[in-house]
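Sequence in, structure out. Go.
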Amino acid sequence: MKLDRIDIKILHELQKNGRITNVELAELVSLSPSPCLIRVKKLQAEGYIDGYSAQINMTKLGQTLTVFTEVTLKNHRQIDFARFLTAVDKIEQLIECHLVSGGYDYMMKFVTAGIAEYQVIMERLTDMDIGIDKYFSYVVLKSPIVRSHMPLTSLFPL
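Output:
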């Protein structure tokens, strides 16, 4: 499926507000409701839309700790990467994990109830013998800019 300008606009609007009505969405992307709904259903069927979820205001629920962690593995064979990913994939507090280039192998983002929980997680990981050589932790003090949507219309101008 080749996307056009309207498809990108639909995706852009849906990622900002997944609860938007089809009529409102159609108006924003300059379509009538029926063709708009057909496009949305096609975008879903083709896998461009993975799903819908609620954005939770974590500060309303209580205090949390966000930590970015750089991880360097001892060895760099495929089996080493696979073993590491299998282990960390089971950690619910791990929100993101990126294989990166540069001075370390993975950049991970944890959200925990506090520093003690983060420490327990990291001690468990280092005790598991999954190939971690070293890790560095960066505790987030404040997050002045956090966006939940991608700049689709800038990334894919049509």
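Check: Residues 70 and 107 are 5 Å apart (CA to CA). The mean pLDDT is 96.
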